[in-house]
Amino acid sequence: xxxxxxxxxxxxxxELRRGIIECSKRGLLHSTKWLAEMHHxxxxxxxxxxxxDDDHSFSECQLEGIAPAEYGDYFxxxxxxxxxxxxxxxxxxxxxxxxxxxxxxxxxxxxxREKRRLDSTTDQANLNEPNQMRDLADLLATLRxxxxxxxxxxxxxxxxxxxxxxxxxxxAAEQMLLTxxxxxxxxxxxxxxxxxxxxxxxxxxxxxxxxxxxxxxxxAHTYLELYLNDDGxxxxxxxxxxxxxxxxxxxxxxxxxxxxxxxxxxxxxxFQALLESDPYRLDNVDTYSNLLFVKEMKTEMAQLAHKxxxxxxxRPETCCVxxxxxxxxxxHQVAIxxxxxxxxxxxxxxxxxxxxxxxxxxxxxTNAAIQSYRKAVEVNKRDYRAWYGxxxxxxxxxxxxxxxxxxxxxxxxxxxxxxxxxxxxxxxEKLDKCENxxxxxxxxxxxxxxxxxxxxxxxxxxxxxxDNETAVHCYIMYCEDERAATDKQSLYQGFMTLAxxxxxxxxxxxxxxxAYKCLDSDDxxxxxxxxxxxxxxRRSAECQKKKSATTVVATAETSSEDEMEWEQLxxxxxxxxTSIADAGKPTSTATATSSSSGNSATGASTxxxxxxxxxxxxxxxxxxxxxxTLTGPTANSTATTPATTTTIPTIxxxxxxxxxxxxxxxxxxxxxxTASTTAEPQAAHDNxxxxxxxxxxxx
Length: 699
What we know:
InterPro entries: APC8 (IPR007192), TPR-like_helical_dom_sf (IPR011990), TPR_rpt (IPR019734)
Low-confidence stretches: 52-56, 569-699
Keywords: Cell cycle, Cell division, Mitosis, Repeat, TPR repeat, Ubl conjugation pathway
Distance between the termini: 107 Å
Pfam family, one: TPR_11
GO cellular component, one term: anaphase-promoting complex
Organism: Drosophila hydei (Fruit fly)
C-alpha cells in the first residue's frame, strides 16, 4: 500500500484545505464541493495543532492572488457570481489585472454565454449547433491571446481547455487540460473535463499526469467511464485502505461500479448506507432510483420520491426520481413531463435524455425516442444506453442496417455485455447473416448471458437452418437451468421442441418428461396433452408388438422341433416307388402266401407286382388333397410309421433276372406283413399304410 500511496495523510489533508480555498475564491463550486467532501472524510487526521503563525498564513492565503486595490471590485463581483448574476460579475472586474479577479472575469463571461445557450437549446434539435457556438468565438480569441502572452495561470489554462472542448477542438483541449492538471493538481474540474476525451485504456495509461496522488482518483473515475469496472473497483478499495475509508465520494463510486456490474443488491446496499450517513444528499440519487426500478421496489421508490421533493424539488435528480416512480406505475406521459422538467433545469442532464427516450419507446413514439437518444449521445458519446436505444428504435421501424451500426457502437462500449451481443445476433439474423449471428450468440453465452435468452436464440437459429442435432443440444443446455431462464414462454417452447424430437426418435421416456413440463403453461398445455396421448398410444402398440413377437418366437421354436423330427422321418421314408408299391398291398401278399402253401409262382408274382406298380400313381393322386391340410406328423403316425417302413429295403438296379429280384422282394414283404398282422388288426394296418404313402408324396 505504501507503493500505491506514498503521501502522508496529514499532507493530503493540508493540500485539500489549500485547494478548497483556491477553488472557492475563483468560483469553481463543483471542485470546492468535491474537495470539501474529501477533506471531511479525513476527520480522523488532526492537523490543527500547529503554531499560531500558520493561522495567520491561512487567512492570508484567502486573499492571495488579489491586489489590495482590487479588493472592492473582487468582493462585489464575487457576490454577484454567488447569486448567478454572471454578466454583472464580469462587468465588475473587467479592468482588474491580478490573477484571481482576471480569472473571475473570464469565467463569468463564459458562464453567462453558456447559460444563454443552454436556456435556448431545451427545445432545439441539437445541443451543439454552430450558431450556438458563435458567442464563444470572441472569448476564445481573448484566451488564445492571453495564453500566447503567458498571462494565464493553471486555472486560466483550464478555462481555455473548456472553451476549446465546447467548440469540439478536442485535441487542443486535451493538451490544455493536461497542462492545467500538471500545474494545478487539486483542480478536480480539470480531471472531469479531461476524462471524456479518453476513449481507451491504452491512452489513459500513456498520459503524463504529473505523478500527483490525485491521479489515482482520476484513473478510477476514467475506468468507470470506460466501463472497466474491476480496475476502477480495485483502485477505490486501495484508496479506502490508504485512509479514505470514510469518504462519501468513494462509497458512491463503488455503488456505481456494482451498478455497472449488474450486482443490484450490493449497489442498493451501498446506497442505503450512503443515505444513512448523509440523509440529505441528492447526488447520485437518480442512479439509486434506477436500481429500485430494476428490482420493482415500488414502495421504496415512493418513499425516495417524497424524500427528494422535501429536500429540493427543483433539483434535476429529484425530477428524475419522480419520473422513474411514474414510469414504474406505467404512467409514461407524466414520467416524460418530469424528465422534461429536469432538462429545463439542466439541459446537459444525461440520465433525463436517456430515460425520456425509454418512455417514448414505451409509447411507441419512435421519432421522439430517436431525438432523445441523439441528444443523450451529444451530451456523452460514451453512454452505451443511448446507442443501444437508437439501435432498438431503428429496429422497430425495420431499418436493420442502421440498428446494426448503433448496436456495434454499443458493443464497443460494453464488449462484455451479453445484451449488446444478443441484439447484434438478432440483427444479423434478420439480415440473413447467420454465421455472424451464431458467433454473437455463442459469445453472449461465454461472457455470461444476463437475460438468459442467448442459448434459446442459438437453438432457434440452428433449428431454422435445419441443423436439428445442434438445435436439440442447445435446447438441452437452455432448459437445464429453469430458474435462469427469464422468458418462461421460450422455456416452454424449448421443452415442447425436445418432447417432439424424442417422440420422433421413439425415446418415449424423455419425450414424456419434457411434455409433462409443458403442462404448466397455458399456451402449451393442449399441445402437450395431445403429445402425451400419442406417446401413450405408441407405447401400448409397442407392448402389443413385443407380446405377439414373443408368442411367435415360442410357436416357432415348438414347430421347429416338430419339423426337425418330421424331416428325420422323411429322410428315412424316401424309398423308390416300386418298394412302396410292393408294400401297398400287404394283405394280398399274405393271402397269396397262405393259399400257395409255401409254393412260389414266379409268373403270378410278377403280374401281381405289375398291378401294384400301376396302382401307385392313383394312390398318390388320391392323397394329394390331404397334403395342404397336413401341417406336421401326429404323435400316432410318428410312432407307427417306423414299425412299417424300417423293414422295407431299397431296391437296387433291375437285373436281367427281374423275376428273381421280384421273388426276393415278395418274400421280404411277406415276412414284414406277417409281423404286422400278428401285432395289429388288419384295419389299423391299412390306415397306417395309407398315411405312409401320403407323407411320402409330400416330398
